[in-house]
Write a structure and sequence with these properties.
Elements (H helix, E strand, L loop, with lengths): L5 H4 L1 H7 L6 H12 L5 E5 L5 H8 L3 E6 L2 H10 L4 E4 L12 E6 L10 H14 E12 L15 E7 L2 E12 L4 E10 L6 E8 L3 H10 L2 E7 L24 E8 L4
Parallel strand pairs: 1-2, 1-4, 2-3, 4-5
Antiparallel strand pairs: 5-11, 6-7, 7-8, 8-9, 10-11
Helix pairs in contact: 3-4
Length: 263
């Protein structure tokens, strides 16, 4: 077992496992920013390989991509030039006061804040980084989905793909830690290149829609949208022209919130 992350440590492998040729997540984020009149300065917090940051840059925004992984940042700088890329921890970061008109945080990145203190650090950092009236756009798993549902739990999910001539196979099992309010993930990697199996463990905080609404409101944000889709990881996925729904019951949660214009 290791606390390292095979995909995070190998960005090209990550992109092979999670291809996004249509830049769906970046297009969805830009749609949210445009519909709500966000200014041009955007922080992509948890930018990963830089694909979404690069898309926002190419549509005319001034983008900073931030991530904790040096490997991801090096890949982003080489593969997706244009945005500025900096190392920062979403649990607490200071990239300048009122330096951004929007903070984008996709693919469940906020859920790596496992404790209330970490959530407080993330939201306080976003508030400090954003100009008055700025937008927070986030997309994540929906804790409410797991109330009474077990279809995603316990049964291993297998995925196989080939990258640079090597066949990879991942077996992923999800369990709910109700005491910690975490969705725990165990993933076992095997490959046909003779490498020994690698077991990795990680977790996401399970946030519920009304809990998230309360957290944001208490920190001076007005929640403009809070729904389960359509979004970049829903089925069917979001496409241009599709407006947000009114429910928050499915397995993804999408939020757009505006920082108050006055403290």
């Amino acid at each position: 077992m290791t606390n390292a992350n095979l995909l995070t440590d190998n960005p090209e492998l990550y992109e092979a496992r999670f291809p996004d040729p249509g830049r769906l997540a970046g297009r969805w984020a830009e749609d949210c920013l445009r519909r709500h009149g966000a200014g041009p300065r955007v922080l992509d917090m948890g930018c990963g390989t830089g694909r979404d940051a690069a898309h926002l840059h190419h549509v005319g925004r001034t983008v900073t991509g931030a991530d904790l992984s040096e490997a991801m940042l090096a890949h982003a700088r080489a593969r997706y030039p244009g945005p500025a890329y900096v190392r920062a921890d979403l649990h607490g970061f200071d990239l300048g006061r009122a330096a951004f008109d929007a903070v984008v945080c996709l693919d469940s990145s906020p859920l790596y804040c496992h404790t209330n203190d970490q959530l407080d650090g993330f939201l306080s950092s976003c508030r400090r980084a954003m100009a008055p009236g700025g937008l927070l756009v986030a997309e994540m798993r929906n804790g409410a989905y797991f109330l009474g549902r077990t279809d995603l739990l316990g049964t291993p999910a297998v995925n196989a793909f080939t990258w640079q001539g090597t066949a990879y196979r991942s077996t992923t099992t999800l369990t709910v830690d109700r005491t910690a309010q975490l969705l725990r993930r165990t993933r076992v990697w095997t490959s046909d290149d003779g490498a020994p199996p690698v077991e990795q463990r990680s977790a996401w905080r399970l946030l519920f829609p009304q809990e998230l609404r309360h957290l944001l409101t208490a920190r001076g944000f007005e929640v403009l949208e809070l729904h389960d889709g359509p979004g970049p990881r829903t089925e069917p996925p979001w496409r241009e022209g599709r407006l947000p729904g009114r429910t928050a019951d499915a397995d993804r949660l999408h939020v757009v919130a505006r920082l108050a214009s006055t403290p």
